Amino acid sequence: xxxxxxxxxxxxxxxxxxxxxxxxxxxxxxxxxxxxxxxxxxxxxxxxxxxxxxxxxxxxxxxxxxxxxxxxxxxxxxxxxxxxxxxxxxxxxxxxxxxxxxxxxxxxxxxxxxxxxxxxxxxxxxxxxxxxxxxxxxxxxxxxxxxxxxxxxxxxxxxxxxxxxxxxxxxxxxxxxxxxxxxxxxxxxxxxxxxxxxxxxxxxxxxxxxxxxxxxxxxxxxxxxxxxxxxxxxxxxxxxxxxxxxxxxxxxxxxxxxxxxxxxxxxxxxxxxxxxxx
Length: 278
Description:
single chain; alpha/beta; Rossmann fold; 2 domains; 3-stranded parallel sheet; 10 helices; 11 strands
């Protein structure tokens, strides 16, 4: 049976490390501050924002919450970001996505100062990742690298397949695996013979957005499988993009849903916040 990669335990380690660093920064007179902006009251966004505030409180990061009404204009939102960019006491700025339809997400993300872009979505940070320069990295892929490293899973020289090519997970994930000397293939909805490709993978990272799509016949015996998906099934139970029951017996290691990748995203956000003040 596969080793379960415990995202809760690993994220807790990272949060403890962040807590220690925040305490040291406070001794030096530096208070780490994250500004979180939410426009409208999308229920899932409200839950995510609440979890981010709790994590900040636990680690000792000051969080400033800007809960704006749905009808907030793009100009008003950009003006707020401009003001936060200019504030010396704010280290990180996070705009909770999705935004209401009348606001251009790309324009908003491009307006955040790259040095305060703790989500790692600004083109400057994405470009830095592409050419191996220092910058903030998108939290979910950064968290997956930590899951692998802290579970003693070697990436260098391994055949790595990423299913999914989103700007938030798939593309940065491929770049991070390359940075760790993995041999990387990116597959997606237009990929032909997907099973042939995924069955080559020593490390298979699934971020395809379809519940339980990846079954045992997609997976090489002894592979490491990382499931980024999160859905509710017909019984309202959480599940991932991987059919855990059919795949787990064939893996050397696998992440569960929930309790795998999910907790790592917020842990890495906290890590980025601490970096922004360091």
